[in-house]
Amino acid sequence: MGADACLFVFDALECAGEGELSRNLGPRQFLGRSVDCYFYWETLDELGVSPADPIRELLERLGRRRTEDLEEGIHGWLGPEETRELGERLFALDLPDYECSFAAMQGFRQVRDLAEGTGREFLWPAYEHPEYSFERLSLSYVRTVCQLAAREGKGVLWGNGVG
């Protein structure tokens, strides 16, 4: 399916409402705060991933397949085979290891008071792993979502403010 057809289907589901989106696309999962696929490049460098490694091309397709410069909406996607490949390739990297589930990913969610010590309260969710950087944790979320989708023969979408 081409880019225009994918966007048409997504727009139709979005107009139909949150229930249709979730039923047809599956659950949404936080990966990182408005990050771009290039957010992972430094981490991939640290992990020894070559600039020519297919991981980078797959992440670019996922995060930048649309050519317009958008802040909101779908930025990119992977088809089922690309999704399986990215999940497998990311599994080989030194990333946090946990049960392959949305519930396990939510287990890293902490709520922090950003105004601590000021007499005010400003609670903010943060995702943290005791042994890994946020970047590696976020990349592990990409891996886990890809693995979950691949089990069902599905692809994945990347976007901001989607749904």
Q: Radius of gyration in whole Å, from Cα?
A: 17 Å
Task: Enumerate the strands of the largest sheet in spatial order, edge to edge or round the barrel.
Answer: 1-4
The amount of helix comes to 40-55%
Main structural class: alpha+beta
Describe this structure in words.
The chain is of the alpha+beta class and 163 residues long. The chain has one domain (3-104, 136-160). 45% of the residues lie in helices and 13% in strands. The chain has 7 helices and 4 strands. It has a two-stranded antiparallel sheet with strand order 1-4. The two termini are 21 Å apart. The model is unreliable at 1-10 and 20-24 (pLDDT under 50).
Short description:
The chain is an alpha+beta fold and 163 residues long.
Keywords:
single chain, 163 residues, two-stranded antiparallel ribbon, globular
Strands, helices and their partners?
Blueprint lengths: L2 H14 L1 H8 L15 H6 L7 H11 L8 E6 L1 H12 L10 H5 L2 E5 L9 E5 L6 H18 L4 E5 L3
Antiparallel strand pairs: 1-4, 2-3
Helix pairs in contact: 1-2, 4-5, 5-7
